[in-house]
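Handout, section 4.2: multi-component inputs.
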Amino acid sequence: MIAKEEIKKSQKPRLWQNLFYNDDLLLNVIWKKLDTKGKLKVHKFYYGLFLSLRAAMPLSTARRLYDLLKSNKLLILDKIKKIKFEEGNFSIGFKKNLYIKAPQIVNATGLSNNILKTDNTFIKNLLSNKIIQSNLLGGINVTNTYQCTNELPSNNIYAIGALTYGSDILTNLIEYIVQSTYIATSDMLGKLK
Amino acid sequence: MLRQDCDIMKKIAIIGTGLSGAATFINLIERFKKIDIQSNLEVFLIDKRSVDGKGFAYDTEQDCHVLNTLASGSSILKETPNDFIDWLNENHFNKENYYQHPPRNIYGQYISYRLNQYIDLALKFDINVKKIVDDTLNITFDS
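Output:
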């Protein structure tokens, strides 16, 4: 089982993980040097790997999940085909004709980083008012000082965090967010001087 | 010219006061302390839930919900990288596992504490801070 193997491996030092923990957000610097083709390739093939190393699941959480899996209290399924509601229950269909029924469903898939696909009213309005633009990966396009790019005479609007994915790559890490706010606030105050 | 003598009022609105919003405000005040700005500043802290720095991510009561980053890289102050570790020690949260992956509710308390501390500090610098609890729906630009 993959979970058991991963827990076993985590007992020993992991070279790549240690490198990522000590990289001082070097990946974001490299990201900015890549051309469009390179960015799309990293996004498609390596982003998940980078994130699983740089913001890995804590061992205590992995052990808890493994225990639940082992005792058949947790079942992990993917590739949902359709969801129906009938006779007081949701019926969830997966590929390979597997169905499960549940009275309640929790959508815990998180927010979409793609602002063009979001159902958030605020983001939708910012887009329609041309206050923000999307980048090649669908995140909010920001400059090196985190100002949103737009065609308005003033671009004193800044965006920081996961929604700017694509302008940088590791946008949801605490270190990244704090560093971004430092750069953005320096820029803001520079304009007030 | 003293800031108090200046009648130019600059306004900054920070939408969302989870980690990003709180870090923006805290680093804004940190930077403000160090430079000479000849204008009065007013900061609006806006959040649809509560202006407390916790956001969705750190507003949990379960200790088993832990950060997936290390405590050593989780300071909210850019220029004080050990700030979170020091805060853990000062507040007797110095359990071994907290240095690895601290509970999210503890981290939420840390952000909240620092946010409130910097709101107080802002007032000392004559920065007007207004908290607004409401859902932001739109921004328009009027030239």
